[in-house]
Amino acid sequence: MTPLWTAAEAAAATGGTATTDWTATGVSIDTRSLQPGDLFVALADVRDGHDFVAQALARGAAAALVSRRPDGVAENAPLLVVDDVLPALEALGRAGRNRSAARVVAVTGSVGKTSTKEMLRTALAGQGPIHAAEKSFNNHWGVPLTLARLPQDAAYAIIEIGMNHPGEIAPLARLARPHVAMITTVAAAHLEAFENIEGIAREKASIFDGLEPGGLAVVNGDLPTTPILVDAARAAGARIVTFGEGRALHHRVTEISLASDSTTARARAWRTPLLLKVATPGRHFAVNALGVLAVVRGIGADRARALCNLAAWVPPEGRGLRETLVLDEVDDHLRFDLIDDAFNANPSSMAAALDTLAAAEPTDGLGRVSRGRRIAVLGDMLELGDTERDLHAALADLPAMTRIAQVHCVGPRMQALHDALPEDKRGEWVEDATTLAARAHQLADAGDIVLVKGSKGSRVSLVVDAIRKLGHRVAHDG
């Protein structure tokens, strides 16, 4: 395997001291996923990574990045000793970015960062070596870790950048130095840390502070806060491309058609008509796919190949993945569909997910209930600030709710929605997800379509896991 870092290179990048000569083929912060040959970074988070250095070395780590020699580690152990581990990881990421010739894309937004990053990975497949984080590594350690892992031969790098509080995005964008920065949307997420949605927009727009000279800003043009984003991009000296559904946008969707396992859209990119498809239902996926095509063009990749690749794209688990569960191995007609969107939630993404559920067609006459149903299991939306109760209750008024048969609510905040729902739509309300997970066998019947969505902290993924155990999975192949 091609070396990623030598001891000398890593020491020069971080200003640290290597105790021995070593070569690393990867970088890891977790002994559970560490591969032999990785440089183990002893970050202090929930636990102090120094407590796991001996274990990492025993599992084959090439060396460990530490601020001290941990107890139980031999004097001749391969270490890179620095003053402070997190700044050293940032320095390693900066060095990884500086030596790379890759075209770099940075993605942020209140909704859709991870799915858009994965769309880009799919779109660029076959056009050169691609580097992107395997998970949502988008914070103060995730971005430098992704950059520290950047192979020298990568042609494209896709960096996801997130935030919880003001002032987080700009330093990470300056570290990534993207050639193209994309903002998927701005919505009411993390409101407890901001005065209003305009404050969120200004924070998202600070991604343009890191753009390389002459860089491209790809901006959702359908938002009330679009002018804030465009003004920030212009102030950063960026070229600007807008995308969405509005008539005046550079890249615009003109028609969207939802099927049970795909979304097809007609669009115009400048003056070029396009027909695009993704292998999952959802208007928002079609709109973001158009933004992805704008990014592809902006980094000089082949847009036609990207269009073909996108036709096979499906979201990752927890991000809107739709799958079929067969309840009876003998009679495979006894099945229902699960939409797993259990990783994140705010009012905007809830509305999009409920729209997708409302557009889906259940199957009648298969199960104990004669008619197939659209069922939603909704967990708390977190970090919404003082108006959180009103924002939860307002979900009851969404047009999509008229086509949904039953809504189960999980968490103290979702009690506001439960109270606001018409009686005929009210399912269960429970304080925590474990209670509803234990009754998963009562939630769905053959022919139903079940959406599970909530913030990660609501733990509705437990309900997803329990529902999956009701049958065997048959993933949609588009």
Which key features would you list for this structure?
478 residues, alpha/beta, Udp-n-acetylmuramoylalanyl-d-glutamate--2,6- Diaminopimelate Ligase, Chain: A, domain 1, UDP-N-acetylmuramoyl-L-alanine:D-glutamate ligase, Protein-Tyrosine Phosphatase, Chain A, 3 domains, nine-stranded mixed beta sheet, 15 helices, 23 strands, 28% helix, globular, cytoplasm, UDP-N-acetylmuramoyl-tripeptide--D-alanyl-D-alanine ligase
Overview of this structure, please?
The structure is a single chain. With 478 residues, the chain is α/β, with parallel strands linked by helices. The chain folds into three domains: 5-85, MurE/MurF, N-terminal domain (Udp-n-acetylmuramoylalanyl-d-glutamate--2,6- Diaminopimelate Ligase, Chain: A, domain 1, 3-Layer(aba) Sandwich), CATH 3.40.1390.10; 100-310, UDP-N-acetylmuramoyl-L-alanine:D-glutamate ligase (3-Layer(aba) Sandwich), CATH 3.40.1190.10; 321-475, Alpha-Beta Complex (Protein-Tyrosine Phosphatase, Chain A), CATH 3.90.190. The protein is 28% helix and 23% strand. The strands form four sheets. Strands 9-10-8-11-12-13-14-15-16 form a nine-stranded mixed β-sheet, sandwiched between helices. Helix 4 crosses helix 9 (283-298). The longest helix is centred in the middle third of the chain and has 16 residues, at 283-298. The mean pLDDT is 92.
